[in-house]
Specification:
Four copies of one chain form a homotetramer. With about 350 residues, chain A is of the alpha/beta class. The first copy, chain A, has ten helices and 14 strands. Helix content of chain A is about 35%, strand content about 20%. An eight-stranded parallel barrel of chain A has the order 7-8-9-10-11-12-13-14, surrounded by seven helices. A four-stranded antiparallel beta sheet of chain A has the order 2-3-1-4, with helices on one face. The longest helix of chain A has 17 residues. The interface between B and C is large, with 38 and 38 residues. Chains A, B, C, D: This is 3-deoxy-7-phosphoheptulonate synthase. Chains A, B, C, D: It holds the Pfam family DAHP_snth_FXD. Chains A, B, C, D: Keywords: Transferase. Chains A, B, C, D: InterPro entries: Aldolase_TIM, Class-I_DAHP_synthase, DAHP1/KDSA, DAHP_snth_FXD, DAHP_syn_2.
């Protein structure tokens, strides 16, 4: 932690700050210049909790030096993590493709989609049973019935299955039927849910919040891992900006940024990021080229009739074509697309 | 709903769209121009759920005409709501001031603050028992113990008390001790929590999400009201922007915007909006001048030692001074500050 | 300047950094902790231009301690500036109201508006002769003809007049006819224009860029003042965010933030900030309550026929009513509205 | 244009709107529903300039149907443009790589870089002679002297050369020495400069503004093309968001969005977008995979000593390695990297 004093800070003000630091058993380091004085504090920052130095007299600002996330921090855990899920693993060497409908609408819709995405080369079936929708009057999902269809699809196809969970109750239900839990963007800072997901021990896909910084996202992951669950995969799905030509703005830089800051795998969801199916293909390729560990793509037997997010869903044919086109990009990035 | 066709859309494409609309029992209205054709659809939009017209051939874009929130919409409920809470009400004629510490740290801290804010003229005591914190290693709150102190403070001072809830469990606990529930910014789209708050029948303060649009915020309120609970007050607390000189950017325009779009009362939290106590006073005055129904302000016996949000908390003296300065603004806005 | 080393930085890496600092005639101060080493550098930062320490081996990040703007910085010039313009001054004690049409459309329109805003209590007439418009097909302004009408309006009413300038040529022309130059939001980082405005010696109203930080805005002002022209007034006019219910998001916090960081006066333009005339009144009051030194408000004889920004313009009656309502807010803030 | 009436709009209010439309020689189309009435207007929207229908009584909102840019609009000009510059062309089939230092610092620095980027496969040398810098105290460029070095580098290597221009004067000077003009992000809505660039007839690289929407960007291009100059290439260089782990947020979706909305080529600048050299490689690959027509990359003989943007500049070795890695991505996208 670094404390920057105001240009006109008195000697007493500086002394008050250094005394406070020493009183907590830490050592202050002074750098006195012609314009400003800087006080460096190295050590266990948590000892200063409840000492709001930024409002001490004469203090201009306080700059944090170390990240608050530790267990997901690459600085302390330099090796990239491999997250085992079902019959595969997510991380180095693999390109994991999760595909399926935004919402599970019926047994038929799901089974049909499962066989189609399996044939095209996906290794995960995605599908929403609990749908967080902006309006209470929109379709809210089939809940546990949907989870049962997911399990059936898994048994029929050998695909791993993943479902979003929106409450402790949903985690409990999903744990019986699926291979991996998804925490959605709107719940990225639902800390109660993160703790429950941590306790479940299940692999968790943690989507980035609509306006979460990378640091907040990694702190959210820290909530899960600090409960003893290291099986976390991050998913970039677009952030909120002023631009309206896409539903969100895919922050493709998040892929190399996460690679530098954390050891957790990171995948990309170009469907939610853009909201427009014509943009899904180019951005899927971009994500693989940027080094993503996988993709989450919405596929629907008949997008024009989808109850949720139809405009961004690919048809079976379009998905199969995209998977073919992705193969050489996958090879270039040194990853295998199948398990 | 309005469907705008592409300049080169064929007659068949237009017919396909109008046929689809008619098949749902609705009537399309065609406007054919030299460059583009527009199809207007008036009526019950929900009949078109699962008809993703935007991806029909020849369609350029689809524009929604009506808001998806109905019960909180001023267009259909033109009279401003008055929300009764404890021994007072929030809405026209009143300026409700909620004050207290970010986090309840101890019985002493809370009681001392309660008497101080009461003396200065506040009618609500705020205080967090369940704290959603970015890092799992930050202080997380006293939970039910804190709620008990709140009840005690209410009984000792006659203040109404409000606490944030972060789970169904917390709602159940808080309902026993406090007058009003608060849904925090990070949970504004935690739809499970919104539904539970709706079912509780308790008055709810709904903070705006960190990057929620006004429309998403009103849809979140619609989740609560559609469960039969109309006792909702909105709270603007700053939105996320690129500017870093304040913690968030107070969207002061939200006050007149909400006044135009909804009948619900709206208050302002200048403490969380700025994160800097020197800015709390000017923005509190601005909020009252802009027409807010109230204020939420952080007050702490010793901000330098606060376990959460110390830098934005006012001392007792500063709060009392601010309340004095607010009085004439309050009168100008035609509101009474005390109950 | 503070240099934060990576946790695993070698001693040689640290030495390389301190050697580099010493080679520039500066003194490094080391703070060595269990996790990280911090190197403080105090002194003339400009000596390190061209030494990109952030990419030296073992360096995690570099944090700047002092602002790059000096002459407009309150730290070094603590007294609030008073900017003399025409027959008045902008700054402490005064509330300056600039009113008029977005664009000058005709001699009649301008003269009629000038008399109306004068009667209502404005001290400045605003009006655009050079209009920066998003589309080349929108009305671009009357240019020098418009400037002549401004001068005529000044002579007829005694109002001070202000016009936006968009090029060196426009500055030259405007200097002959008006009292104050306006640099618009889109040109806030048109550094050539800033330098020319600095050289002109004319009072300058510097609008905040559409997505400028407060620091970038003050650096833009530094371009003007560093040419020897201290007569600068800042104007907050809304920033770009994701919210669409207003044209821009008025950053009302900018008023107290500027007050803390700079000695320059700051006014607020609620018309451009919101784009909706129903919101202009509440936000004008909020701006005065927050401590602004003035307001810029769009007024038009017939907003429904305005060639630019009609929807946000007030009628003469609405403006007169607003000015009456503003008076008590003005008194509360210790300012006089007339000269 | 579509006019949406308020639910309670009177028949007279609707009639007033339709009368106004008819008075301008246009035909209104009414769609009357149970809740709202919609009025469609098809035809030459410019006839309604100065009729601000949004503020007519009973009007809820007005929705624009067609884009204001015409000449750069793919709807009216479906074939992708090819922009000839110097000895090459930018557009379909080619991947144009522009490389060089942020700022031209000396003849030696520029010549050395020119030979290095040429050897690695670039076809353009970039280098700034007029530098728009946030602070007036930062290095501002060598101006015309720098342009002369650019010409010399072109003659020595056969590379095409491109320079940013920041004023009409700079356009005049640059036209004598370089093959292509660059309009920087900060000047994207400097409309005077756009018009001058249009009049020059020189090929223009138009960078996206720091917070420009895609539509504003295309309107800026329309300023150039409407002066008779169709030789425009767009450059995505990151937009401003709340995220701070990169200097800007690369909006990779802009590539397919532009491809859909306009016939102009679009290239990507990963150096300015991220500000961090470790991220340049992954994002350069992502840009090619997303379909970009080219890349602009900062290269410097000694990034640690660069006077501008050193931290984001690649060394010669790193650039050569990146060019090698880009080759297979280039082939996959069906483009040739050399001329």
């Amino acid at each position: 932690m670094i404390i920057i004093m105001k240009p006109n800070a008195s000697e007493e003000a500086v002394k008050k700050v250094t005394d406070l630091i020493e009183s907590k058993g830490l050592t202050p380091h002074l750098s006195q210049g012609s314009q400003v004085t800087i006080v460096g504090v190295v050590g266990d920052k948590s000892r200063l909790a409840g000492s709001n130095i930024e409002i001490s007299e004469g203090v201009d600002k306080v700059v944090s030096v170390t990240e608050s996330y530790k267990l997901v921090n690459k600085k302390f855990h330099p090796d990239d993590s491999v997250v085992p899920v079902g019959n595969t693993h997510i991380g180095p060497g693999n390109l994991t493709v999760m595909a399926g409908p935004c919402a599970i609408e019926s047994r038929e819709q799901l089974m049909e989609t499962a066989f189609a995405v399996k044939k095209a080369g996906a290794t995960f079936l995605r599908g929403g049973a609990y749908k967080p929708r902006t309006s209470p009057y929109s379709f809210q999902g089939l809940e546990e019935e949907g989870l049962k269809y997911m399990k059936e699809a898994r048994e029929a196809t050998g695909l791993n299955v993943i479902c979003e969970v929106t409450s402790a109750h949903a985690i409990e239900a999903a744990s019986k039927y699926v291979d991996m839990l998804q925490i959605g963007a709107r719940n990225m800072q639902n800390f109660e849910l993160l703790k429950e997901a941590g306790k479940s021990g299940m692999p968790v896909l943690l989507k980035r919040g609509l306006c979460a910084t990378v640091d907040e996202w990694l702190n959210a992951a820290e909530y899960i891992i600090s409960e003893g669950n290291p099986h976390i995969v991050l998913c970039e799905r677009g952030i909120r900006t002023y631009e309206t030509s896409t539903r969100n703005t895919l922050d493709i830089s998040a892929v190399p940024v996460i690679r530098q800051k954390s050891h957790l795998p990171v995948i990309v969801d170009p469907s939610h990021a853009t909201g427009v199916r014509a943009y899904v293909g180019p951005l899927a390729k971009a994500a693989v080229a940027a080094g993503a560990d996988g993709l989450m793509i919405e596929v629907h037997p008949n997008p024009a009739c989808a109850l949720s997010d139809g405009p961004q869903s690919l048809t079976f044919d379009a998905f199969e074509k995209l998977m073919d086109e992705l193969k050489p990009y996958c090879e270039l990035s040194g990853r295998r697309i199948s398990f």
